[in-house]
Design brief:
575 residues, alpha/beta, OB fold (Dihydrolipoamide Acetyltransferase, E2P), inorganic pyrophosphatase (n-terminal core), Diaminopimelate Epimerase, Chain A, domain 1, 3 domains, 18 strands
């Protein structure tokens, strides 16, 4: 798929020259900093050297005093505690963090993760009953609970104390609990509201450690799991998350906990080579697979393992579950593509609403994302569970899928989500009308250009300027993620050296040069469709959009170009 290139210009361009002079860096690097609203020497210093000293005081969070004191009381009195989590990566890492912390003090601690399909998301009566059956004194919820008004009241009625650790948006009412930790609370003055669910759990641990009079460093042993949660939950890697992510990656690459070590061994990812991308595309999906296929306990059991033998067993089980998930994912994607080809004219519809009663609920969200990537229009994948049509929606820039569902709320039993992703439930007799109405809403709100994806371009650069100094500076922008995306560059009039080829599963591989620059190895994942054009016009110059990254192969590291798009003709770039 070819993209519409959109060039990003700094809002505060007047600071570019100043930073260039003060830091003695190339202008292109200075522009990247200003694009991130880093405009002073001190801000740049903190950005390039984020450290644990930059973490915020946990007691700035509303209710932290009450939460930390209640945890300390549980520890001192050796109470029974249930950690109540969620079935995704953020929820299972958060559960593992708080569980392991409490267990390290000798507490009788249990965890509860609701079944994705039988119970759904959040605190529910079954989970509270589980805590009662364990004779627990306290429930600590992580990555859920901020809207559990009735459930909190029920727990209180049953004599159970409840601490809620969440990071989702609040409703009109805050649950009645011992403490409710959520940086998005309207009455919370915590300096950063972008924490993951595991991040909020980590702040609780920090608070409890301070109250116990112990060393701050005790909390840092959980940073590997915090980093996995940050990368997988797509929270912004800025401010405190940038520190947590950087230090967590450092731990994963030097001394990860035994469960993560065995998982990396199982999937052949060497310790020392793990990046944010490794987590997003290799580690996170495997941890997520357990919950997607129904039971997330395997993921938690892996992360709380104490020895290599136990961890290796759970890593093997998790990989088996992930293979099943991938098989189901692939099969569902193929069926969805076939349905689009046979039952719809993609050029005549503005949205895709597909239904098959046999599709697995655990993968349809992934498949909806794949359809958006392939056809760049809103996609909703639906299955049938116990007589109800349920599904996942994904959208494109410029079309708020949550607002679109609100316009169809008379046809829906339930829905929720945000601008780009949502979930929904309806009666099957409403399906045809829902499909018709959603497509009309999409048609009225999307123009022709909206069906061609944008590619945000950070800067035009010359390949001859990509030297050791440039790369060292660029690598200090890591860890990359939302709020700090890997910069996308454009270079023009590029020559192809030798003959382009295809490697792996449809990946384009070739060597590139610009003028008298060095020759760069380039890889374009899933860009095999460009091969005939490039071979036919091999003497023509091309324009490339790409990111720079290190390639790790056979113990060696080399700088390579990862292609994002290719234009064979000079095309104006929108500002």
């Amino acid at each position: 798929m070819s993209f519409r290139w959109v060039h990003s210009e700094p809002k505060q361009v007047e600071y570019v020259h100043t930073l260039q002079e003060e830091l003695n860096i190339p202008r292109s690097i200075a522009k990247l900093l200003v694009n991130r609203e880093i405009v002073t020497f001190d801000q740049a210093k903190t950005f390039f050297r984020p450290g644990l000293e930059h973490l915020h005081d946990p007691f700035l969070m509303q209710d932290m005093e009450d939460a930390a004191c209640r945890i300390c009381s549980a520890i001192r009195n050796c109470e029974k505690v249930v950690v109540y989590g969620d079935y995704d990566v953020d929820g299972t890492t958060a559960t593992s963090i708080v569980y392991t912390f409490l267990e390290s003090f000798g507490l009788d601690v249990h965890y509860y993760i609701p079944h994705r399909f039988k119970e759904g998301y959040g605190i529910n009566p079954d989970g509270i009953q589980y805590a009662l059956d364990q004779n627990a004194d306290l429930i600590v919820s992580v990555d859920c609970g901020i809207t559990a008004i009735e459930e909190a009241a029920y727990a209180k009625e049953k004599g159970l104390d409840l601490i809620i650790c969440d990071h989702h948006n609040c409703g009109s009412e805050i649950p009645d609990a011992v403490a409710v930790l959520d940086p998005k609370r309207p009455d919370c003055n915590y300096p950063f509201d972008g924490l993951s669910g595991a991040g909020v759990g980590f702040k609780l641990i920090q608070g409890a450690i301070k109250k116990l009079g112990l060393s701050d460093t005790l909390a840092y042993k959980y940073l590997d799991l915090v980093a996995i949660s940050i990368a997988s939950d797509i929270v912004p890697i800025v401010d405190e998350n940038r520190v947590l992510m950087r230090e967590g990656l450092r731990m994963i690459n030097s001394n990860p906990r035994v469960g993560i070590k065995q998982l990396l061994k199982k999937i052949n990812v060497p310790i020392g080579s793990v990046t944010t991308s490794s987590i997003v595309f290799s580690i996170g999906p495997r941890i997520n697979a357990a919950g997607r296929m129904g039971d997330a306990s395997t993921a938690v059991d892996l992360m709380i393992s104490k020895d290599d033998t136990t961890a290796a067993r759970f890593a093997k089980k998790l990989e088996s579950v992930n293979k099943k998930r991938r098989t189901t994912d692939t099969k569902t994607t193929e069926e969805a593509m076939e349905m689009l080809a046979s039952d719809f004219n993609i050029n005549e519809i503005s949205s895709m609403v597909l239904h098959d009663p046999q599709w697995h609920l655990g993968v349809i969200g992934i498949v909806a994302s794949r359809l958006v990537d392939a056809y760049y229009r809103p996609a909703i994948m639906l299955s049938t569970v116990e007589g109800k049509v349920k599904g996942s929606a994904r959208s494109v820039k410029g079309f708020n899928i949550y607002e679109a569902l609100k316009e169809c709320d008379d046809l829906l039993e339930q829905f929720g989500g945000h601008e780009f992703a949502a979930g929904l439930t309806m009666n099957e007799e409403n399906l045809d009308e829902f499909r018709r109405r959603l497509d009309k809403i999409a048609f009225n709100n999307l123009s022709d250009k909206d069906f061609k994806p944008e590619l945000q371009i950070d800067e035009f650069i010359e390949l001859g300027n990509v030297d050791t100094k440039f790369w060292k500076l660029l690598s200090q922008f890591e860890p990359f993620g939302p709020g700090n995306r890997r910069p996308v560059f454009v270079s023009e009039d590029i020559s192809i050296e030798g003959v382009p080829s295809i490697v792996g599963n449809g990946h384009l591989k070739m060597k590139l040069r610009q003028g008298n620059s060095a020759v760069f190895e380039a890889i374009g994942f899933n860009m095999h469709e460009y091969l005939p054009v490039l071979r036919k016009e091999k003497d023509r110059k091309i324009n490339i959009a790409y990111v720079l990254e290190e390639n790790h192969w056979n113990g060696k590291r080399s700088l390579q170009i990862r292609l994002k798009d290719i234009h064979t003709e000079k095309i104006p770039v929108a500002g």
